[in-house]
Each structure stands twice: as structure tokens, then as C-alpha cells.
Specification:
Elements lengths: L2 H26 L12 E2 L10 E2 H17 L6 H15 L10 E2 L5 E3 L2 E2 H18 L2 H17 L11 E2 L18 E2 H17 L3 H18 L9 E2 L13 E2 H18 L2 H21 L10 E3 L4 E3 L2 E2 H18 L2 H18 L10 E2 L22 E3 L6 H18 L1
Antiparallel strand pairs: 1-14, 2-3, 3-4, 5-6, 7-8, 9-10, 10-11, 12-13
Helix pairs in contact: 1-12, 2-3, 2-4, 2-12, 4-5, 4-6, 6-7, 6-8, 7-8, 8-9, 8-10, 9-10, 10-11, 10-12
């Protein structure tokens, strides 16, 4: 690969990160009359004063700005990271029962005290990045205590994996799970538990953490990844796929997992497990490229009915994960086809997904790249809204992390 071309794309990714994504959040996400961040901001960049504040959003802001502060120590990103840490620690943390609440009201009263394992995983992931940046002993202590809590309260003592949702005092509940029909296990929660435990083992190489990370990685390799290379989505407690979702593929999760699993195996440092995971990651990537990547480089949302029906909307986070997944494929194989796909994907993002006038990225565009600027009744987005730039799920983590990953990976290729 020509070094000049790599440097050109590196400059573009860094420009997007530092001139668009990070400044947008610094300017529009910070509360004018509070100590945290707005729960939502609309397409005119006006705060939605009635929107609740999400633990997941706050954790993702913390992760992004702590990572940016590590990458650019002199750039002043640490202030946002410190603010996000204080909010997580002072307002979202449950001082009596442990863990983190799902949502707060605009005035920081508890709005949803359910303990979602998914949200706990993102809090842990963010705190790992905060500790990697600050190296403060209190942050390491917080990580260690949260790991012990999750293992005690959310780990299934009999079967593989982790429970999905709990009451404030950690009693399992069968509703309000991260699943379409309240299935007892989801791929999504376990993917982000793996992501968090990989980050934890990287900063605190404790054997118990390594053992749990290995279990999660093996669970993906043995039970969650289908023979086709796509991920299963919802499962029973023994990790058998359940329900109509057996016919569905989520392309964004597939391609995100294709590199997150490899990253976890690299952190574990087991050559045999790494080789197996790299092979699985490439199979997953190829499955997505074959079915989910449009000719213009945009990534479709999902396929239904065993691939016979493709939903062609292109959501912002899918495009970000596609960039990293394709770069990972190129690094593993040096196959130029992955690099060419990456270039097409970036061109699609740059032309259609980035809001060059209003800042940040549009939440969702259609197949032709036209942004949805209202929330259509007949095609709502899962979780997030098309008419908001910031909301409980629309965050700087996917696109900000993609830019950081791409910059770092190009540096590895050059040096």
C-alpha cells in the first residue's frame, strides 16, 4: 500500500475527529446550567430540556474524551472526560446497592433504576479508559470493585454468560431486557461485556478477568457466531438461538464483532486462540461484505428471513464500525480489496452521513444517502431518533472511536 495514500486518509480521519466530532460534543452536549450533559439535542443543535439522561450516553462520552485526551494530551479534551467521570460517579452510581442506574431525569433525579448489564458494561469500559488516561489509584479500585460486583450479581452461576436486567437491588427481572421479546440472553449485551472485559484485562491483567474474557470469547466462537459467519442475536439461558431472530442478521454488530473479538484475543495473548479468532473475524467480515455492503460503500442495517429481505437504511453507527472492520481485514490479510472497500465506505460517509453544515453525523440515511430528518411512523429507528443529533443512544463513541482506531492502525502500518 502506498504510504502517501495512507497518510492522506489518516489526515482525513484526524480532521473529522478533531474538527467535527469532538468539537461538536464540546459545544452542544454540555449543560449550560448543570454539571453534566443534555439528554438530547435536536437537529438545530438545541437542547431537548425534557429528555432524560442516559448512563450509556454518559459512559460513551467519558470513553471518547478520555481516549482523545490520551491520544492528544495537549488538546484540552480532558475537561470533558473529567466532567463525564464526575457525572457517572456522583449521579449515576448507586451508592447503596452498587452499579449504575439506567437513566436520570434532567434534574438528576433517578428516572430508571433498572440495572442493565449492558449499561454496567459501558460504565466499566469507560472507566477503563479513564484509568488508562489518569492512572489514578482510586480509578483502579473502582474498576476492581465493579468487576467483582458484576461477577457476583450478573454472572449466571450455572450456565454460560450473564443475565440481562436486574432490579435496583440486583434481583433478576424478566422484562425490560435488551431483547426484542425479553429473551434471557442477547448477543449485544455479551459483545459489550467482552469489549469491557478486554479493556479491563488490558489495564489490569488479573487472572480472574483473563479467565472470564476467555470464556466470553469462546462463547462467541462456539455458540454465538453462526456457521454462516453472522452473529446470532437472541438466545435462551443455555445459548440456543430463539424466536424469529434466527432468520435475521445485524450487519453492524457482525462487522463490529469481527474486530472486537480479534482485539480481545490479542489482549489475551494466546497464539492458538488468536489464530482461531482471526479466522472467525475474517469469515464474519466476508459475510457482511457479501450481503450487507452496498456498491456505494454504505452498510445496510440488517437482513430478514435468512437473507432474502435486506433493510437498506444506513444508520450512522454501522458505517463507523464498517470502517474499522474493513481496516482490520486489511491489516490481517494485506488484501487490497478490503482497503478499496474502506475507501468507498469512507466516501459514502463523507458525502452522505457527515452533516457538514450542522456538525456531527446524521442518525440514519436511506439507501441513496438522503438523511431522515423526521421520525417516520412507518420506519422508526430502534432506540434512537432521526430528528435528534444527540440522544440516549446517539453518541460520539462509534464514530469517534472509528477515527481513533483508523489513525492508530494507519500509524501501525506506516511504522
Amino acid at each position: 500500500m502506498d504510504t502517501g495514500e495512507l497518510l492522506t486518509f489518516r489526515a482525513a480521519f484526524e480532521r473529522e475527529l478533531r474538527d467535527n466530532i469532538l468539537p461538536y460534543w464540546q459545544r452542544y452536549a454540555v449543560e449550560a446550567d448543570g454539571d453534566g450533559f443534555y439528554g438530547a439535542v435536536d437537529l438545530q443543535n438545541r437542547p431537548v430540556q425534557t429528555a432524560n439522561k442516559s448512563c450509556v450516553l454518559n459512559a460513551r462520552i467519558l470513553w471518547t474524551f478520555a481516549a482523545a485526551a490520551r491520544a492528544y494530551p495537549e488538546a484540552g479534551y480532558g475537561g470533558m472526560a473529567e466532567r463525564a467521570y464526575r457525572v457517572l460517579d456522583r449521579h449515576f452510581a448507586d451508592d447503596t446497592q452498587g452499579g449504575f442506574f439506567m437513566a436520570l431525569a434532567p434534574d438528576n433525579r433517578i428516572a430508571n433504576d433498572v440495572k442493565h448489564t449492558y449499561a454496567q458494561a459501558f460504565a466499566l469500559y469507560a472507566l477503563c479508559q479513564y484509568y488508562a488516561w489518569t492512572r489514578e489509584p482510586f480509578a483502579l479500585d473502582q474498576l476492581q470493585r465493579l468487576f467483582a460486583l458484576l461477577e457476583d450479581k450478573t454472572k449466571d452461576p450455572r450456565l454460560p454468560g450473564y443475565g440481562e436486567a436486574f432490579t435496583r437491588d440486583w434481583r433478576p427481572i424478566g422484562e425490560n431486557r435488551m431483547a426484542d421479546h425479553n429473551e434471557p440472553r442477547s448477543m449485544n449485551t455479551h459483545l459489550h461485556m467482552l469489549e469491557a472485559y478486554a479493556a479491563l484485562y488490558h489495564v489490569w491483567p488479573n487472572p480472574d478477568v483473563g479467565g472470564r474474557l476467555r470464556e466470553l470469547l469462546t462463547l462467541f466462537l462456539d455458540r454465538i457466531i453462526r456457521p454462516t459467519g453472522h452473529l446470532g442475536i437472541f438466545f435462551d439461558e443455555a445459548f440456543n438461538e430463539v424466536g424469529a431472530a434466527r432468520a435475521n442478521c445485524s450487519f453492524g454488530h457482525d462487522i463490529e464483532a469481527s474486530w472486537l473479538l480479534v482485539e480481545a484475543a490479542e489482549i489475551l495473548g494466546d497464539p492458538a486462540l488468536l489464530a482461531r479468532t482471526q479466522a472467525a473475524g475474517l469469515k464474519m467480515l466476508d459475510a457482511v461484505v457479501r450481503v450487507g455492503l452496498d456498491q456505494d460503500g454504505g452498510l445496510f442495517l440488517e437482513s430478514l428471513r435468512h437473507g432474502s429481505h435486506v433493510r437498506t437504511n444506513k444508520h450512522w453507527w454501522l458505517q463507523a464500525e464498517a470502517l474499522v472492520g474493513l481496516m482490520n481485514g486489511y491489516q490481517l490479510t494485506r488484501s487490497v480489496r478490503y482497503w478499496e472497500d474502506l475507501k468507498r465506505s469512507w466516501a459514502f460517509v463523507d458525502q452522505h452521513v457527515i452533516d457538514h453544515r450542522g456538525g456531527e453525523w446524521f442518525t440514519k440515511v436511506n439507501r441513496l444517502g438522503e438523511p431522515y430528518l423526521v421520525e417516520p411512523a412507518d420506519d422508526p429507528s430502534p432506540f434512537y431518533r432521526n430528528d435528534w443529533k444527540i440522544d440516549p443512544w446517539k453518541c460520539p463513541y462509534h464514530n469517534g472511536r472509528a477515527c481513533l482506531e483508523l489513525i492508530h492502525r494507519i500509524d501501525q502500518l506506516i511504522h
